From TrEMBL:
Source organism (scientific name): Limosilactobacillus gastricus DSM 16045
NCBIfam families: PRK05463.1 (NF003969)
Keywords: Lyase
Protein name: Putative hydro-lyase FC60_GL000275
Superkingdom to which the source organism belongs: Bacteria
Entry's family note: Belongs to the D-glutamate cyclase family.
Any one GO MF annotation of this record: lyase activity
Enzyme Commission number, as recorded: 4.2.1.-
Enzyme kind, highest EC tier: lyase
């Protein structure tokens, strides 16, 4: 079956049935992909405030009703407990489990946040003639912890996570132009060409995802990343937080053009 060109709803059904558990970059091109963070209602306001204060790495697309596994805006026929290929469960800041379903852990006080994902602008970059190396190489996008401090909120604090894509020098201006037009999915790059300036020591050892090849004449270009909440979770040591596994997104019914 050609999974890549399925409709979002059919793709979500495959994920829900456990038939697809991998990274989602390159699938359902043109449709918005989303990161996830789920917290108990007692911690939801702090997270919403954190996201409002840090919109580049944490652009909120939608917030579900308390206890609800459904959405109102970004997808119909959706189950937030099963439609991400993989989830991570954190307790007291420690990653304790990675699962493909939240059926056994779901609670009626959970609040789910959809966060914009840079996978959503990759189709736009490719349409502009810019290669996306991790798609070419069939791996997950490399992501790195940085020294860029977030504006804290309540118990929540931490540093930004960024995703990296190698871009030829002659195409960097176009990449900036294309992504700056999509602020709801992280917008323009936050750093170009100097990983050490944001605390990244070794591009070959990403903190999340996989390393990719950087060719001669290419520069590492860094965008704010929706994995940032996972860094915050570790440092803030909340009793229970659930996120998507990096690179394993929800594919929504909204087209990327609608986010411009």
């Amino acid at each position: 079956m050609d999974y890549a060109n399925l409709s979002p709803v059919k793709f979500r059904h495959l994920v829900r049935q456990g038939q697809f558990t991998g990274p989602t970059s390159g699938y359902c091109p043109g449709y918005t992909q989303a990161n996830l963070i789920i917290v108990p209602q007692a911690d939801a306001f702090d997270f919403l405030l954190l996201a409002q204060r840090n919109p580049r790495p944490c652009p909120v697309l939608e917030v579900a009703d308390v206890g609800s596994r459904q959405l109102h805006q970004f997808a119909q026929d959706v189950d937030l407990a099963n439609d991400f290929p993989r989830y991570r469960i954190y307790r007291d800041g420690q990653l304790v489990q990675e699962v493909t379903s939240l059926d056994d852990i779901w609670r009626n006080d959970f609040v789910a946040f959809l966060i914009g994902c840079s996978f959503s602008f990759e189709a736009e970059l490719m349409a502009a003639g810019i290669e996306i190396r991790h798609i070419t190489e069939g791996v997950n996008v490399p992501m790195y912890d940085t020294n860029i401090e977030l504006l804290g909120a309540g118990k929540l604090q931490g540093q930004m996570v960024v995703s990296m894509r190698p871009i030829p020098g002659s195409q960097i201006a176009k990449a900036v132009e294309v992504t700056a037009a999509m602020p709801r999915v992280h917008g323009a790059p936050i750093q170009i060409g100097d990983p050490q300036a944001i605390g990244i020591q070794d591009l070959n050892h990403p903190d999340y995802g996989d390393p990719v090849t950087i060719m001669p004449g290419e520069y590492p270009v860094f965008w704010p990343c929706g994995v940032t909440p996972q860094n915050v979770v570790r440092q803030s040591k909340l009793p229970l937080v659930i996120t998507h596994a990096p690179g394993h997104m929800l594919i929504t019914d909204v087209i990327n053009q609608d986010l411009k």
